[in-house]
Design brief:
Largest sheet of chain B: 6 strands, antiparallel
CATH superfamily of the largest domain in chain B: Succinyl-CoA synthetase domains
Number of domains of chain B: 3
Oligomer: heterodimer
Largest sheet of chain A: 7 strands, mixed
Strand content of chain B: 25-35%
Number of domains of chain A: 2
Distance between the termini of chain A: 20 Å
Number of helices of chain B: 13
Distance between the termini of chain B: 41 Å
Order of helices and strands of chain A: EHEEEHEHEHEEEEHEHEHEHHEH
Helix content of chain A: 25-40%
Number of strands of chain B: 19
CATH architecture of the largest domain in chain B: 3-Layer(aba) Sandwich
Strand content of chain A: 15-25%
CATH class of the largest domain in chain A: Alpha Beta
Helix content of chain B: 25-40%
CATH architecture of the largest domain in chain A: 3-Layer(aba) Sandwich
Number of strands of chain A: 14
Number of helices of chain A: 10
Shape of chain B: elongated
CATH topology of the largest domain in chain B: Rossmann fold
Structural class of chain A: alpha/beta
CATH class of the largest domain in chain B: Alpha Beta
CATH topology of the largest domain in chain A: Rossmann fold
Radius of gyration of chain A: 19 Å
Chain lengths: ~290, ~400
């Protein structure tokens, strides 16, 4: 088992004909991902990369039974593409696109609140169940099958962590990149709940983002869950102060909790193990 | 993206928000002339225009400006001249700038509005809830960190729903919180005009510190700050034109134009990465082994060969950089494009400082092959830790 994606997941691709999409979809197919359809509103050909093309998500879903979508559509058109996938009631949508505007994301979140569809991203490397299938732009061959569930707000740190886990022989059940943008779809707690119900996952690693209050919300809700798996959060201190987004107004919105140390305390109080570098993370994991 | 106060005020004016009469000036003489145009008798306020807050509490680096900050009430026309003269071409250091401060190249001269009460007002985004939040507070000192320990008492927060405006009853709640007994309709229309600006321009924050409520109940925006969403700028060419390029370093600007992020910190090594998380992890690990970071460049998911080469050049030509670490975990970004970029730059400029490259992920083997074949004097590392240690040794050998 795994969460969200496995080799049976029927994936449709929105914006499949772009150069980047073509490159990454070919690799995903080779990996074992079941790519069943491509959606291109202005389609001229019947197939692309051997995948049948459709004009709408709805058509593609009806014809192929696709239950998930990966979005490679450029930022300016991404909102309508994502909303189309939500309206078609797909189980989940993975949005690779970066640069979607804040106002578009607020509207997308509004739509998601009345829907069962889960949005992963945007600006995410995607999701991967090692040695089965992936939807995203993952590097080849670095992910190993195993029992650690990974949820991350930083794409590049995810790769760095996976490489260290592999060195210790710690494989991964599923890796979920939540996306690096300020406003995202699914949050840590949504995915933690899924890992809790996954027999294959023994422990969950959470890679925190830089700034923001998503981790605080996670801690509050994690504390309320009764039966749960151990969660270890990696929160790296931000030495530069030039990254992140702590304005006076955002400090007020976050109820004044913006210092990394304060956030760590809140996470610890909820029962989450907190570490501040990758070495300590692997140390904690080898204890479990 | 940020704009100056006077530019934000022009936008406010278009939306019917009360702002004091004001004109921008680039020289002390101009400041005096525009002051007389605004009012014959004063008083006036002279305000340094930089993209950073806490100007009032700031200090100028050149002592000729005295100890006063970047916002000065001037009672006589001579004071307007002197204050403008003090500020212009001087560096203003505030809590929101670095220690060098920001160069004041223009001042805004405006009429002084007498207000009975002053308040902090902002519209900002709760990133977790994906909502716009209105904040009102009697605390007009942005550095009053103590106020943050009692949010409910010091700050009134209101979630702006999909209707994108507030009702009279909510305006009444705001006034009650402020302890002001004035017309709720006036407050409602003030806030709703701000919301119109917010949504019309895809702002991510509007902050007015302070608003002034005059004796007659009229509400004035005595200050104005608007931050815009970079990802929405394509819808607002008029805002893009307002960007003050003198506010970012030349290198930063080149990186921005290529779609990348470039930041200068101290002096030491230059880091090229492809993600914020990786940037921070690399800077931290460098610090752990005693390497300071001069600057870093985040190529994000860049896929354009030429743009990548241009940006690598930024780091290679920064005189404060004594060694370079290129640390790439390719997903979307393909390692071979970086390798091409390195070759391209080395062709142009030669390689005269130590360079360590670490590739992992998409097209790693192809990229490593390109570097080996080039016979360039660079080092290839397997991971971040090893790479930084190799660089440290190489820098020490150079000296």
């Amino acid at each position: 088992m795994a969460i969200l994606i496995n080799k049976k997941t029927k994936v449709l691709v929105q914006g499949i004909t772009g150069t980047q999409a073509s490159f990454h979809i070919q690799r995903a197919k080779k990996y074992g991902t079941k790519i069943v359809a491509g959606v291109v509103p202005s389609k001229k050909e019947e197939t692309h990369l051997g995948v049948p093309l459709f004009k709408t998500v709805k058509e593609a879903k009806e014809a192929t039974g696709a239950n998930a979508s990966i979005v490679f559509v450029p930022a300016k058109q991404a909102k309508s593409a994502i909303i189309e996938a939500i309206d078609a009631n797909l189980d989940f949508v993975v949005a690779i696109t970066s640069g979607i505007s804040v106002v578009d994301m607020m509207e997308i979140r509004q739509r998601l609140s009345n829907s069962k569809t889960i949005l992963i991203g945007p600006n995410t490397p995607g999701i991967i169940t090692p040695e089965q299938a992936y939807m995203g732009i993952f590097p080849d061959n670095i992910h190993k099958k195993g029992e650690i569930g990974l949820i991350s707000r930083s794409s590049t740190l995810t790769y760095e962590v996976v490489l260290e886990l592999n060195k210790l022989g710690l494989g991964q059940s599923t890796i979920v990149g939540l996306g690096d943008d300020f406003i995202i779809g699914a949050s840590f707690i949504d995915i933690i709940e899924k890992f809790n119900n996954d027999a294959k996952t023994k422990a969950i690693v959470l890679i925190a983002g830089i700034g923001g209050n998503l981790e605080i919300e996670t801690a509050k809700r994690y504390a309320e869950i009764k039966h749960k798996k151990p969660v270890i959060a990696l929160m790296i201190n931000n030495p530069t102060k030039v990254l992140g987004y702590d304005t006076f107004a955002s400090k007020i919105i976050c109820d004044g909790i913006t210092e990394t140390e304060d956030k760590k305390d809140i996470l610890r109080q909820s029962g989450i193990i907190v570490v501040d570098d990758i070495k300590s993370l692997t140390n904690e994991l080898s204890k479990i | 993206m940020n704009i100056h106060e006077y530019q934000a005020k022009r936008i406010f004016k278009k939306f019917g928000i009360n702002i004091p009469n004001g004109i921008i000036a680039y020289t002390p003489n101009e400041a005096r002339d525009v002051a007389l145009q605004i009012s014959e008798t004063g008083p006036w306020v002279v305000k340094a225009q930089i993209h950073a807050g806490s100007r009032d509490d700031g200090k100028f680096s050149d002592k000729r400006a005295g100890r006063k900050g970047g916002v000065r009430v001037s009672k006589t026309i001579d004071e307007v001249y002197t204050n403008a003269d003090d500020m212009l071409e001087n560096m203003l250091v505030t809590n929101q700038t670095d220690s060098k401060g920001r160069l004041v190249s223009r001042v805004y001269v405006e009429e002084f509005i007498k207000s009975a009460k002053k308040f902090y007002v902002s519209l900002a985004i709760d990133w977790v809830l994906a909502n716009v939040i209105l904040i009102v507070s009697p605390i007009i000192d942005n550095e009053d960190v103590g106020a943050l320990t009692d949010i409910p008492n010091n700050f009134f927060k209101l979630n702006i729903g999909t209707e994108r405006e507030i009702r009279t009853t909510q305006a009444k709640e705001i006034l009650d919180f402020m302890g002001v007994n004035s017309d709720a309709k006036e407050m409602k229309s003030f806030i709703n005009r701000l919301l119109k600006v917010f949504y019309a321009y895809d702002a991510t924050m509007i902050e007015i510190n302070p608003i002034g409520i005059a004796k007659d109940g009229e509400i004035w925006a005595l200050d104005a700050k608007i931050c815009f969403d970079r990802n929405s700028l394509y819808r607002h060419p008029d805002i893009t034109k307002m960007a003050d390029e003198s506010e970012v370093s030349e290198r930063e600007l080149i990186a921005l134009k290529n779609g990348f992020q470039y930041k200068e910190l101290n002096s030491g090594i230059g880091i090229i990465v492809n993600g914020d998380g990786l940037a921070i992890n690399t800077i931290n690990e460098a610090q752990n082994i005693g390497l300071d970071t001069a600057c870093f460049l985040n190529l994000k998911g860049g896929v354009d060969r030429d743009k990548i080469a241009t940006s690598i050049k930024l780091i290679m030509t920064n005189p404060k950089v004594d060694g370079i670490f290129i640390n790439i975990l390719g997903g979307f970004l393909r390692c071979n494009l970086i390798a091409d970029g390195i070759l391209n730059v080395a062709d142009d400029l030669g390689l005269n400082i130590p360079l360590v490259v670490r590739f992992e992920g998409t097209n790693k083997d192809e990229a490593t092959e390109i570097l080996y074949k080039s016979k360039l004097p660079l080092l290839i590392a397997e991971d971040t830790f090893t790479g930084l240690n190799m660089l440290k040794r190489a820098i020490e050998e150079e000296i």
